[in-house]
Amino acid sequence: MFTVKSVYNGLSKSESGIYRKRIWKGKIPAKIKIFLWLMANNAILTKNNLQKRKWQGDPSCVLCDCVKTVSHLFFQCPVVKVIWLVVAKCFGASNIPTNLQQCWQWCEQWFPFGKQYHPWGVAAICWAIWKCRNRACFEKKNLLRILLR
Q1: DSSP 8-state secondary structure symbol assigned to residue 15
Q2: b/e map of 65-90 (b: 16 or more CB within 10 Å)?
Q3: Distance CA 31, CA 132 (A)
Q4: pLDDT attached to residue 47
Q5: Angle at 146 between CA 49 and CA 63, to 5 degrees
Q6: I want to staple 71 with a disulfide (CB 3.0 to 4.6 A). Which of 2, 51, 90, 99 is the partner?
């Protein structure tokens, strides 16, 4: 019998969904769990995903003018790399992640005693990047002012 609980259990207990398990079992607000799940499944509405739906806008990143993909937006954009470098520097890491899957491994490598906090940290950083990018893109906010707030 189909229930919301059966779907939730399927997503969070599946062997292929180790990252989904972190997302769904984390003590994170529901809307951010959904956001991370969309991100993990490359389904978040970045400009390249909008173009697949026949969107006619400019596909370039508002932060650096490259074509925007999920990995680019959250890990590979030069502006976002600075954010990850600051986080890495704070915790003594010598590298930064380049995609979400690598991000989970990166957290385990550099923060071995804080596994329960990894989903919170990843969620907070990615959510802040998403909100900042949306303000710059849709509200035409100055990126420097957004970052300095």
Answers
A1: G
A2: eeebbbbbbbbbbebbeebbeebbee
A3: 17
A4: 63
A5: 40
A6: 99
pTM over 0.85: no
3-class state of residue 5 by DSSP: helix
**pLDDT band of 146, cuts 50, 70, 90:** low
Instruction: Indicate the helix (H) or strand (E) that contains 97.
Output: none
Q: Residue holding tokens 């074509």?
A: 67
d(CA 96, CA 94): 7
Percent helix, percent strand, percent coil in the chain, to nearest 5: 65, 0, 30
Residue 9, amino acid: N
Residue with tokens 């499944």: 41
| Whether pLDDT at 8 is above 60 | yes
Q: Which two tokens stand for residue 45?
A: 């509405």
pLDDT, tens digit, 9 for 90 and up, residues 29-78? 888 888 888 888 877 877 666 667 776 777 677 777 776 778 888 999 88
| Tokens encoding 133 | 């990018």
